[in-house]
């Protein structure tokens, strides 16, 4: 997975249509999530599209599988995950993920229905990181 800073560097120089294409490409680069993991328990509430996020045990480091039935939304998921994948749980628990995503200005770049579930996805990730960091 690309680093968030690498993605931001590329994103900064793209026009709106190219930014959509980049998000779609990022979504395609996510590790596949088995259909068996796409359950009500892994469904992120508040998203206009269906979004599933599943934590994978990697010691004290965070790893998630995620998917969506919408290409742009899946790209947004990839952005969020690129901010946290492989990082220590305590670091992510203390991290301001929304601030890390600020350079992408998603609220102004995308329609509100595409971004409305992002805070819920961030909350789910931070809750998992906090539990993992607490032991």
TrEMBL record:
Q: Where is the Fe-S metabolism associated domain?
A: 13-127
So which domain of life are we looking at?
A: Bacteria
TM spans (from-to): none
Among InterPro entries, the record links this protein to: Fe-S_metab-assoc_dom
Q: Name the family the entry cites.
A: Belongs to the SufE family.
Protein name according to UniProt: Cysteine desulfuration protein SufE
């Amino acid at each position: 997975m690309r680093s968030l800073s690498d993605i931001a560097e590329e994103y900064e120089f793209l026009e709106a249509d190219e930014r959509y294409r980049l998000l779609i490409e990022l979504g395609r680069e996510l590790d596949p999530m088995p259909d068996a993991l796409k359950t009500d328990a892994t469904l992120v509430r508040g998203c206009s599209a269906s979004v599933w996020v599943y934590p994978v045990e990697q010691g004290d480091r965070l790893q998630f599988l995620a998917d969506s039935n919408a290409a742009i939304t899946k790209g947004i998921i990839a952005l969020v995950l690129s901010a946290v994948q492989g990082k220590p749980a305590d670091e992510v628990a203390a991290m301001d993920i929304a601030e890390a995503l600020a350079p992408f200005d998603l609220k102004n770049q995308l329609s509100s229905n595409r971004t409305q579930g992002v805070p819920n996805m961030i909350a789910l990730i931070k809750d998992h990181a906090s539990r993992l960091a607490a032991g």
